[in-house]
């Protein structure tokens, strides 16, 4: 199969793409639900599922229009089956199944996290295995050793909150809205790095796991104290900037240290990053610097491939076609897909 339709609906983005040979994007469309969830300070699962239902057909049609192709042209469908919000995943999977059944073409189940890893292949199709990939998103903070297509070893993961979740919670507590990552990234770019030093959780010596809940609590306690000042508010940059900058430095310090440690421990020559938080400018800058200093090659996907998108799902599906199936009992799951880890 050379030409795939890819569908991604694991959280709050409804996305479709037409991908040829795994890395050539002929058409891509995305409906972001961010404005629908903004006022709640986070994703409301019920709203997310309903929005996916309302928009998915239109999104798929837009991807085909951009590619100048129709359903007659595609040979298979790559679709995210987990992990994610179960109601959201089911919409994408049900549509994928319906089209695959009607057209008598196979489905290729893709894990959302492996999709984030494949953003690196979209960015650099010449990438060589093995490599280490740091996947940092709203739901996960994982370090993988990627041996080959579909071969991943989980080296470390968060024991509590994901990095993106910490960004979102801190932003919500500051009244900055959802999602927190982009707004904190922008504001922290203006601040002084070490005005407030929040704790970094490195865990046991040598551990590649993460923990961000302590940092989140420390920042929220600090904000609670600052809220005692009557002029404190989301528009008071003098008070907000040191907090978001100190928070971001604490997150980035740990991500960079553990990612570089994983590269050393696995004797890798290449580090890739993926997931929404990988679009963070400070993280990109710091990792690029460390890799350059250590003689490590780094693949940093453009932001549109870091945040949720269907192109990465198409790439993962193409290179893992051995999973292609017409088993219509295939279902969505709120965990990593068992067959790949
Ligand atoms: O990968 P993604 O789009 O969805 C999930 O799979 O979760 O990641 C979304 C997360 C959110 O927590 C959002 O706040 C965070 O990525 N994010 C960022 C930035 N852009 C998005 N975090 C830090 N800096 C950014 N520039
Ligand atoms: Zn994601």
Using the CA coordinates, give the radius of gyration.
20 Å
SS element count, helices:
11
Which class best fits the helix and strand makeup? Answer: alpha/beta
Number of strands: 10
Label the overall shape.
globular
Summarize the main sheet.
Answer: 5 strands, mixed
Strand content: 15-25%
Distance between the termini: 24 Å
How does this model look, in words?
By secondary structure, this protein is of the alpha/beta class. Helix content is 43%, strand content 19%. It has eleven helices and ten strands. The chain has helices spanning 34-37, 45-67, 86-103, 112-123, 163-174, 180-188, 213-226, 237-265, 281-294, 303-306, 311-318; strands at 3-8, 13-20, 24-32, 76-82, 107-111, 131-136, 141-148, 151-157, 270-274, 297-299. The protein has a five-stranded mixed beta sheet with strand order 3-2-1-4-5, with helices on both faces. It is globular, with a radius of gyration of 20 Å. The mean pLDDT is 95.
Give a brief outline of the structure:
The chain is of the alpha/beta class and 341 residues long. Helix content is 43%, strand content 19%. α7 packs antiparallel against α8 (237-265).
Give the topology.
Elements (H helix, E strand, L loop, with lengths): L2 E6 L4 E8 L3 E9 L1 H4 L7 H23 L8 E7 L3 H18 L3 E5 H12 L7 E6 L4 E8 L2 E7 L5 H12 L5 H9 L24 H14 L10 H29 L4 E5 L6 H14 L2 E3 L3 H4 L4 H8 L23
Parallel strand pairs: 1-4, 4-5, 6-9, 9-10
Antiparallel strand pairs: 1-2, 2-3, 6-7, 7-8
Helix pairs in contact: 2-3, 4-11, 5-6, 5-7, 5-8, 6-8, 7-8, 8-9
The chain binds 5'-O-[(R)-(carboxyoxy)(hydroxy)phosphoryl]adenosine and zinc ion.
